[in-house]
Amino acid sequence: MGLIPDDVIETVRLRSDIVEVISRHVQLKKKGKYFIGFCPFHQERTPSFTVTPDKQIFHCFGCNAGGSVFKFLMLKENLTFIEAVRMLAQQAGITLPSTESPAELERQQKFAQLRQINNLANDYFRYIFKHHGMAANAREYLAGRGLSQEVLEQFQVGFALPDWDSLLQFLGKKGYRAQAIAEAGLALTNDSGRYYDRFRERIMFPIWDATGRIIGFGGRVINDSTPKYINSPETVLFRKGHLLYGLHLARGAIREKGYVIIMEGYMDVVTAHRFGITNAVASLGTSLTKEQGRLLINYSRNVVIAYDSDAAGVAATIRGLDLLQEIGCQVRVVNIPDGKDPDDFLRRHGYQAWESLIDQALSLIEYKLQQAVSKKPVKTVSEKLEVMRQVFPSVAGIKKRN
Asked: Nearest CA to 18 among 52, 63, 65?
């Protein structure tokens, strides 16, 4: 590992908000001039972990762990000091002098190239959406759904042209080869080895990581073709099961409101923000992963699941309930009437009606009981035992934690 000058390290430290960095891993609450939470380095019943913003330090009075923002990342992420400095420098947009090995330099250059390709593609999609005549239907469609220019700008919504290689041509003129564009998840090859755009004639939603860097895209059709949505494939940057759509925008509201709302899709979250529900994120599909759950508890253990109320949504909700309970979350479930999704409900009924749904959200046990008895009347002993079999794991899990 190469040495980094002290003045550069100090610049990185001053440019890194320790509360923001630690909040990605620990749910913090403000208490006077401090922030407190449960220590991530040992088990405890009473929070003894303290962050002091004006000194840019943390300390746990339970296990005596403490130090700077670099030390926190070293302990939490099992990083070396140089790796922690590099991570924070990258997030702060600071270029470090490097004497790394050729292999490491090549890896870093590859990551930087893929991020640049994603950023340029996002700029291109946004420009097409705003100015191109072939995006008129997309603009009209989103306007018809009540999305303002402010919201569209906030989520950087774009449009992919129907041509087979419009993005490839654009990025090619910027000096990027088709193979690199494919490695970024934005191109495919046919049987003859010819490259073509992955996303065509779709409304484009950039997908960010928790720090706000674009790592992939989701595309939605504006007609009846299928599939309705497609995401970027798994790449070295984009790992769907480790992400939550909109988290970088929702972090502050989640901490402020004390809970997070998990929805299914992009449009649900975009519409939620339009109505001022800014603590909403999406799971990029219907199946929550443990990695997504662990990402959530960095901000709040109080989770409201608001998936679609169709059969697929119900099944996904139950899987999510079990997973989130296993990792220590307090879970409630919103029952959206008439088989609607959050997007439909909010556009039809508005903010106040949504808040009423949140107030009426069911606990884990209530929701499982409701689902267990909704299929048919429960009369016989065997039917009652089957209900208990479905619900009992939830009860057992709660007792175990207590």
From this structure: 52
